[in-house]
Predict the 3D structure of the following.
Amino acid sequence: VQFVESGGGLVQPGGSLRLSCAASGFTFSTYGMTWYRQAPGKERELVAAIGCTGGYTKYADSVKGRFIISRNNVEKTIYLQMNSRKLEDTAVYYCNGGFWLGRGIFDYWGQGTQVTVSS
């Protein structure tokens, strides 16, 4: 199993950014997927999840209405469109298998992608 997260960077509050997570090593289209994030000094938290067909999604209250999760089963990739970003969105973002699971299905975690929101 492998996850490769990308798309992070340094951005100003209110801007937009799209993160990607390319997955391999398992039958991607049969798994729900979840984005997580971990801010400095804090526990990893759930951000958004998507069902295996993309027809069902769930968001943390802190990002609801601002972030959009999507997936492409042909490319085995999930995305996180981050709009109206806030300073508190600063974190390393990760993905893992499973729908809204606190720990993720797979023991393996990618390196994540750093998102820094700063004015």
